[in-house]
Design goal:
- By secondary structure, the protein is of the alpha/beta class.
- It has ten helices and 13 strands.
- It is globular, with a radius of gyration of 23 Å.
Length: 301
């Protein structure tokens, strides 16, 4: 039994389709079938019931999913924990971040950090919030930049960096464009344009609307904030965004309306205690110092 076989098995269990599973696993269907056949022979029972149209897990297959997931998770955690003993990890930082690096000057901070510490290699990948959380949980990143209230409960160290405010944005011809401040409840009949459901901002916006007493009429778009900003400017709806993000985009067609509730959201740097190394500690201190407040991380249980 190999880790590769377990990964292939879970891919088929997920998609119920050999073709899609093979594409996801970057192997041919024939190779995938051989791997599963070998796995079934070793286990002594069938993992899937196959018909001409459907692929379903057998009772044994259902139970094997649980063990496979657990084994692969333990394997990933082992690699993550032991990585700190390798020469590469001592001089490399893997950072995952929600796509707001430029909005808060993080790109410049990282650039200046590398100038000051030229021996450190920094790898940064921007992702939607749910994927950043996965990287944090699985140990696929040493550090993450994320809205602090989107970090799930667990044994994580959270380093608050900067507060930002949720605001309403409209086009210049909208009925709220002459307002400086509103109660969000006033917008319950409006059509909202939100980022995709796998983003932290979508969760933030929905939560704010529900707190104001209504469920928004939303168009959930798997687009970047700059595209939503353009749609709002063209009168296609209104949106909720972080003040720093909309100010960074500087569009005279957009009007910012403050909310009477003044929802405050914090951008934070987070990590796992076991991922802390001398390099990551140095980076954390450098980033905090760049934001003007050096504090200790809070352990979230």
């Amino acid at each position: 039994m190999t880790f590769e076989q377990l990964q292939h098995f879970l891919a088929i269990a997920k998609y119920k389709n050999y073709s899609i599973a093979a594409e996801e696993s970057f192997v041919s269907q024939s190779s995938l079938s051989k791997q599963i056949k070998a796995l079934e022979e070793e286990l002594g029972f069938k993992l899937f019931d196959r018909t001409t149209r459907n692929i379903e897990l057998t009772e044994g297959g259902e139970e094997f999913v649980m063990y496979s997931q657990r084994i692969l998770q333990e394997y990933k955690e082992m690699l993550s924990r032991l990585r700190r003993y390798t020469d590469e990890s001592k001089n490399t930082l893997r950072i995952a971040a929600i796509p707001v690096m430029n909005h808060y000057g993080l790109t410049d901070i990282i650039f200046h950090f590398q100038q000051q510490y030229p021996g450190v290699r920094v790898k940064v990948l921007e992702k939607d919030g749910s994927y950043v959380v996965q990287d944090l949980e699985k140990g696929d990143a040493d550090l993450v930049f994320l809205r602090s209230h989107h970090i799930p409960e667990g044994e994580f160290l959270i380093y608050p960096l900067i507060d930002d405010e949720l605001v309403l944005i409209t086009g210049q011809d909208h009925r709220f464009s002459n307002r400086d401040e509103i109660d969000l409840k006033e917008a319950e009949d409006e059509e909202f344009l939100f980022l995709g459901a796998n983003t932290g901002m979508h969760q933030t916006c929905i939560k704010a609307c529900k707190k104001a007493g209504f469920i928004p009429k939303e168009r959930c778009l798997d687009l970047r904030s700059s595209t939503i900003k353009n749609l709002v400017a063209n009168g296609q709806g209104i949106s909720l965004m972080m003040k720093a993000s909309i100010e960074y985009m500087k569009d005279p067609r957009i009007h910012i309306v403050y909310l009477k509730e003044h929802p405050i959201v914090n951008l934070a740097l987070a990590t796992k205690e076991e991922m802390l190394s001398d390099v990551s500690r140095t980076f954390i201190e450098y980033v905090q110092d760049s934001f003007g407040h050096l504090t200790d991380g809070e352990e979230v249980m």
